[in-house]
Amino acid sequence: MPLRARQRRHPVLAGLVTLTAVAAVLSAAPSASAADTWNEAGSDRADPLTESQGLASVEVPAGSANRYTGIGTIPVGLSSRGWNHVGDPDASYDGYYVEPYQRDSGTTKMFRVQAPGGGWSEYVHTLGPGEALNNSWAAVAPGGQWMLSGEYGTMTRLLVFPTPGVNPGTSPAANLPQASTVNLDHPVRDVQGCDFVTATRLLCSSDDPAGTLFGVTKPLLQVDLSAEPNGSADVSGHVTALRQLPLRSSCSGTFEAEGIDYDRRTGTLRVIVVSPGFCVLTDSKTYKFTRG
What is the mean pLDDT of residues 23-50? Predict the structure, then answer.
């Protein structure tokens, strides 16, 4: 992710030059029984300043444009207060739009919410014991009342929160509490975004640079939940690696898998992949996929 606090920073945007080869062995990925197949169906250029972190399709109001996040979309008022990284956003089915924010230090993370009417609110969460500072993504469950979020690094869980602004138990004036946990049956690494496909199925983009967990770097992951998240009890999640995300550029080096979005109206899956080196400026892409 180009400018992710406490995570690898892109060589051009953050001033680091790190050109390493990416190894990918697709045939070594675990079999995907009862899993979807997603086939590449085109791409668009991803602007490195405004489309390099995440993306979301918004259903309400009707005709709303797709939303994107990047270092250039962070309001000055937020960055001046230390909220210098925005992750992969999501929108509820009734039009509430949620952006996850983090800063370089402290004991809180923040979710910025825009209501369908246009007004913005901020919901701050105080970290629990052992919780990472990273606030990489948000994924609102189809029912709207509950939202998943994730931490960076190698993790065996996803976090469940009441959806800020939607769940009546939330308030900008109160701490946004973690309600429950999704316990994964397989570790995941550097998940940059997840989105619900059904009430119990998620697709996630992983920026895993090593490939040791699933036999492939930068995998598209599927997480099947044992039940819909409801905030009152933990659920389990079965993880399957579906494929490697596209890694194509005029430059050689390390790609970065970023945010993900599933548009249920069209059945289109979109994932941002940022190119290595100076090609971050020229051929970073938002790839489109359709179910096979």
Answer: 72
